[in-house]
Amino acid sequence: VVAYSLADTFPYPASDQGENGTDATIQGGAITEQQAFVADSKREILQNAFRLPYPANQFFGHKSNTFGVWICPRAVYADLRKLLVPMRVVDKANLTAQGIVTRDQIFMHLIDKFSFNIVIVYVRGMRTIEDLLLKWCAEYTKEHHWRYFFFEDLDISRTFPENRDRCNVSLMPKASLEDVELARMTGRAQGIVSAVEPVKYSSQSLSDSLKGLGSASFDAEKVLQSVCGPSWQAEMEKTSGLATRIEGNWKPALLDWCKGVFVTREIKVFMIFSPPGAGKTVFIDKLKDKPEIRDSLQFRSFDCSNFRLVHQSLASILAVDYAHVAHNTILVVDEYHMLSEPQKRELCAFLTSRVPPIPCIIIGNRMESYDQDLLDLVRAANRDARQTQSAQDSTAIQ
Known about the structure:
With 398 residues, the protein is of the alpha/beta class. Helices cover 44% and strands 12% of the residues. The strands form three sheets. The chain has a five-stranded parallel beta sheet. Strands 8-11-10-9 form a four-stranded parallel beta sheet, with helices on one face. α15 runs parallel beside α16 and α16 runs parallel beside α17. The radius of gyration is 23 Å and the shape is globular. 27% of the residues are buried.
């Protein structure tokens, strides 16, 4: 299982340029077709070398060759027991009886069940799940390739689309039209997870559908507009029920912002909000490789869904990890929407109090009403700094 899991997660190479100096968009990153072919070939060789026999091969593997979170029906438990798969079972009712009720406590309890010879933690009795807990579990399996979470009859239909995309639902029974209609009328989707997911538009899924047309690469934004129409962002907002927005041609604006970010010593924040799949993080990765940026700026990234936040405050992580950075460093805060309001205020306090200030690019999938208030705090801090500097200059002249 360990060997096959490592083979299944064989990585694509880091972003690089093709022979003609242009990038081909594959797997959401910037690698050439040749590099992707080589990586796929190596992965297939390793998978064949360590292939699991039937029926064990049904229960191991990763979503997008990355995440080991499975949503399964109750019958899977008996199958795993018959195969003598090394696993630990966690029952939600027992957790509640022990007073383990918060997402932090639940997550720590789940990962404590793994050991040297335990590859599956099987969770029963959990009907719904918080988005952040689901994201932590997915990210944990990303770092520990041979460890898997199986959630029995878990309803993920109301979680964020980007979190559902991290879950393997291939073991769930396919729903009939009657089941889908009943689920919509009753507000329950248990047992038909894969069928009731709302339609998702992403550059990755569109890329897969266009491969048969002989297209080696494509502009994700143009394809989204042509396939979904100009109102696709509004339709995404209706699907999620949460406010999302992406305004203007932000990519040239971000490039110009980066070029002039250290002209003054003010606190500078560039916020990007859009539905998942719009290419925000991919563009930042490409931006780092541009010659005019690569030679003059450094980037440090922080993922706000990192499970370090389970046992550490955001303020302490920022204070330690970013206490000493190069003078030309820009902080990239990804998955910003996964932070709670107190955590966002900790981030704001860090940005407004740090001397010298560190420019920050904030990336999120949705914007809350109080995010604008935090931006106002940054602007207020800049005004105060300018007034203080003006008073000091006046005193020096006198």
